[in-house]
UniProtKB/TrEMBL annotation:
PROSITE patterns: HTH_GNTR. Coiled coil: none annotated. The keyword ATP-binding does not apply. SMART domains: FCD, HTH_GNTR. Keywords: DNA-binding, Transcription, Transcription regulation. SUPFAM superfamilies: GntR ligand-binding domain-like (SSF48008), Winged helix' DNA-binding domain (SSF46785). This is GntR family transcriptional regulator. Gene3D superfamilies: GntR ligand-binding domain-like (1.20.120.530), Winged helix-like DNA-binding domain superfamily/Winged helix DNA-binding domain (1.10.10.10). InterPro entries: GntR_C, TF_FadR/GntR_C, Tscrpt_reg_HTH_GntR, WH-like_DNA-bd_sf, WH_DNA-bd_sf. The keyword Transferase does not apply. Pfam families: FCD, GntR. PANTHER family: GLUCONATE OPERON TRANSCRIPTIONAL REPRESSOR, TRANSCRIPTIONAL REGULATOR, GNTR FAMILY.
Amino acid sequence: MTGGAVVEPAGVSGADEALFRPVRTGNPFEETVERLLQAIKLGVVAPGDRLPSERDLAARLNVSRVTLREAIRALTESGYVESRRGRYGGTFVNERLPKPRRVTPKQLSRELSGGIDDALVLRSALETGAAEAAALRELSEAEIDHLRRCLVETSSARLADYRRMDSRLHLAIAEVSGSASLTSATAEVRMRLNELLDAIPLLEVNLGHSNRQHEAIVEAILAGDPEAARRAMQEHLSGTAALLRGFLA
């Protein structure tokens, strides 16, 4: 909430559609929790924002209202959301989210058992392709505004919010590629990468460098230059990969 006003979920609908897609039938409760956490942790629904209505979410996720309520209860007990009653009620993302699990680089590296390289290769394939595809499209004014807004929010983010806003920008690039499947896959690999990123320090020099690379990626997309967009994204991802391998090797 900002100044007492209800804030609806914002942005272009691509990420909403990708993350709030129908769950598989095998584990509806677990997958519903996963989808809601993805939306929160990747910044699609920001702290203080209201989740879509219960009826809408249940329909989009293709789960029963009972399953959805159980998932929301689990997230409430875990400190991610709260329910409010009244005319402007609903389920809201908490202003202060639980801190990521803290482990040492060595512990995380052992747990991943070689998964670092797998996640980095997958990320490179997905995100360079997303940047190229986005540059090939004629973007709408709403998509352009969404991309620029995410860029500004990332470059001006507080240190505590940087990971979330960075995730949101990368997801926005996938959104404007026009492929819901690519957006969904990018969200899933970003969740894997965030666990790795949370285990290494945020370096101010690196953040300044990353912000300049973000600008180059977005400008190449808006200029309709797919080769430059792919190249700028690859350079950016290579820097992140070097830090992860350095700290977690």
